[in-house]
Amino acid sequence: MAEAETTEKKSSKRPIVFIGMAVLLLLLIGGGVLGWMLFQPERTNEEGNQMSGNAAGSEVQLETAPQTYTLNTYIVNLMGNSGMSNRYLKVGVLLGISDPTVIPLVEKFKPLLDDAALILLSSKTFNDLATVEGKIVLKQEFISRVNQILGGNVVHKVYFSEFVVQ
Predict the structure, then answer these.
(1) 73 and 38, same structural domain?
(2) Radius of gyration in angstroms for the set of CA atoms belonging to the chain, rounded to a whole number
(3) Could you state, in chain order, the average pLDDT of each consecutive group of 10 residues for the chain (166 residues)?
(4) Which of 47, 54, 141, 150 has the fewest Cβ atoms surrounding its Cβ within 10 A?
(5) Using CA atoms, how far apart are residues 2 and 10, in angstroms rounded to an integer?
(6) 124-129, long-range: CB within 8 Å, 24+ apart, which pairs?
């Protein structure tokens, strides 16, 4: 009978020992991760600027953020096989410029830019815009037309703030 009580006490202590070992293991892993994050050496990017260890590849430099000028949000009917289709495009456009001193020039020609945007966008079909490549081609055409109106290489990028085809 004494042996039965001894084995019963040993078996009742086993879950407590396993739980204690699991908690200890979790504390060791958590401490290791915390130590690795705190004592990780600082990284530098290609330009030699120091970056934090946590966001080494995702940190945005505010000095290099692009200058943009917001054009309108355009809503146009897309072309179909035999003229206008029942599909439409809604797109918000931002112009990426390298020099903020050209903003008055862009504002001066804004009515012409709106007209060119409407003509360009309404000449597209659903199939033209259905792929990523089609959207990239649209951006390139937009840059070309805007720079032609502004008389130089003023706009370097075009950004879409919204793009809905229905």
Answers:
(1) no
(2) 31
(3) 55 76 82 75 57 51 75 92 85 92 93 95 92 94 94 92 92
(4) 47
(5) 13
(6) 124/78, 124/79, 124/89, 125/78, 125/79, 125/80, 125/85, 126/78, 126/80, 126/85, 126/87, 126/165, 129/78, 129/89, 129/165
**Pair (133, 101) in one structural domain:** yes
- Residues 144, 119 share a domain: yes
Q: 3-state DSSP call for residue 125?
A: strand
**Identity of the amino acid at 100:** P
Predicted local confidence at residue 10, as pLDDT: 58
The helix/strand/coil state of 92 is strand
Q: Read off the CATH number of the domain in which 133 is found.
A: 3.30.479.30
Residue given tokens 């995702």 in the structure block:
58
Please indicate, yes or no, whether residues 42 and 70 belong to a single structural domain of this protein.
no
Could you tell me the residue range of the domain that residue 126 belongs to?
66-165
- Six-digit token string for 111: 């009515």
* Per-residue pLDDT, 62: 54
Contact 77, 139 (CB under 8 A): no
